């Protein structure tokens, strides 16, 4: 009899453990991956079961809406605000608050390109020198984009730029292209963002497109092209937030409070990416190092008086 009870208890606890596991979304740029590892380690210290689950930005919304995944630690305004705002409004996901960091995601070029394309960083300069960004030196220029959601095609059309978009599959592929171009001073224009480690290693600037306004994405009449939307750049000084499945407050109140508390500034985000992309640590080793060196910061996020969720 005792043995049976024990067995039942064992099965029950295994089942509930699996069901109680918090799943953190791991995307495909470095600071987000390191921060997800840091968060997992902090939740574990808080006594919770955590699992990291890889997802693209495109797929994460469905996963968060359905509770297949539970938290995403870096939602960037420039690439994700449209879907994020829509799902928050529909109460499909939760807005778990801002980081202090101010962000920008935009077309970017190394400074040596200015000598070859006078007028940069103003976007109009691209009209006269698109061909220097083409593979053969003539024809359409190539803009190298990441796999995140961007209206680049729409912007190229609205601003009548002689460019096409080449999409690479992750951040590492962008930096590989940048390194090759940089070493031979070849013109390149590619997606980049701040905060990021790139600004500490490569000298360069963002293209200045017409200033972003929300209307630009909704109303064709807005801006210099009366027929198309997206005749503007991405937000400058954009926000960075955390997102969660709609059930997290009920299911894991402590974990959710901890995640609401997590708050990084620009320097901290770019340091997290540099630990991997400059110093060569693995994501997990970077997370361990960050936890070791930033005790005060993360201790201030921890939730006290908190029984297991
Ligand atoms: C979402 N990202 C920071 C890669 O632009």
Please summarize what this structure is.
By secondary structure, the protein is of the alpha/beta class. It is built from 13 helices and ten strands. The strands form three sheets. Strands 7-6-8-5-9 form a five-stranded mixed sheet, with helices on both faces. Strands 3-10-4 form a three-stranded antiparallel sheet, with helices on both faces.
Strand-helix topology:
Layout: H1 2-20, E1 22-26, H2 30-45, E2 50-54, H3 57-66, E3 71-76, H4 77-89, E4 93-98, E5 104-110, H5 125-129, E6 141-145, H6 152-158, E7 163-167, H7 171-184, E8 189-194, H8 198-201, E9 204-206, E10 240-245, H9 248-251, H10 253-261, H11 266-277, H12 283-293, H13 295-299
Parallel strand pairs: 1-2, 6-7, 6-8
Antiparallel strand pairs: 3-10, 4-10, 5-8, 5-9
Helix pairs in contact: 2-11, 2-12
Bound molecules: trimethylamine oxide (TMO).
Residues 29, 76, 79, 105, 146, 148, 193 line the site of trimethylamine oxide.
Give an overview of the whole structure.
This protein has helices spanning 2-20, 30-45, 57-66, 77-89, 125-129, 152-158, 171-184, 198-201, 248-251, 253-261, 266-277, 283-293, 295-299; strands at 22-26, 50-54, 71-76, 93-98, 104-110, 141-145, 163-167, 189-194, 204-206, 240-245. It is α/β, with parallel strands linked by helices and 309 residues long. The chain has 2 domains: 2-102 and 239-299, Periplasmic binding protein-like II (D-Maltodextrin-Binding Protein, domain 2, 3-Layer(aba) Sandwich); 104-217, Glycine betaine-binding periplasmic protein, domain 2 (D-Maltodextrin-Binding Protein, domain 2, 3-Layer(aba) Sandwich), CATH 3.40.190. The strands form 3 sheets. Strands 7-6-8-5-9 form a 5-stranded mixed sheet, sandwiched between helices. Helix 2 (30-45) packs across helix 11. The model has no long low-confidence stretch (mean pLDDT 93). The structure holds trimethylamine oxide (TMO). Trimethylamine oxide (TMO) is lined by residues 29, 76, 79, 105, 146, 148, 193.
């Amino acid at each position: 009899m005792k043995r049976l009870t024990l067995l039942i208890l064992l099965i029950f606890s295994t089942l509930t453990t699996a069901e109680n596991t918090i799943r953190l979304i791991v995307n495909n740029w470095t600071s987000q991956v390191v921060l997800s590892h840091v968060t997992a380690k902090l939740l574990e210290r808080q006594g919770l079961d955590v699992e990291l689950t890889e997802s693209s930005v495109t797929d994460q919304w469905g996963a968060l809406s359905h509770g297949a995944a539970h938290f995403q630690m870096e939602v960037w305004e420039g690439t994700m605000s449209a879907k994020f705002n829509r799902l928050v409004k529909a109460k499909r996901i939760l807005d778990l608050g801002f980081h202090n960091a101010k962000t920008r995601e935009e077309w970017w070029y190394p400074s040596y390109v200015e000598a070859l394309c006078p007028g940069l960083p103003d976007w109009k300069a691209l009209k006269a020198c698109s061909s220097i960004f083409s593979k053969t030196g003539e024809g359409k220029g190539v803009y190298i984009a990441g796999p995140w959601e961007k209206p680049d095609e729409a912007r190229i059309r609205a601003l009548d730029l002689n460019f096409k978009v080449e999409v690479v599959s992750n951040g590492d592929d962008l930096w590989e292209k940048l390194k090759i171009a940089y070493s031979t001073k070849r013109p390149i224009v590619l997606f980049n963002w701040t905060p990021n480690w790139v600004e500490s290693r490569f000298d360069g600037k963002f293209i200045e497109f017409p200033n972003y306004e929300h209307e630009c994405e909704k109303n064709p009449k807005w801006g210099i092209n009366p027929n198309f939307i997206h005749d503007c750049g991405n937000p400058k000084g954009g926000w960075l937030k955390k997102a969660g499945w709609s059930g997290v407050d009920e299911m894991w109140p402590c974990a959710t409070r901890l995640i609401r508390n997590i708050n990084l500034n620009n320097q901290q985000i770019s340091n997290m990416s540099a630990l991997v992309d400059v110093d060569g640590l693995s994501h997990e080793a970077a997370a361990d190092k960050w936890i070791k060196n930033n005790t005060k910061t993360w201790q201030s996020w921890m939730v006290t008086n908190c029984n297991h969720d």
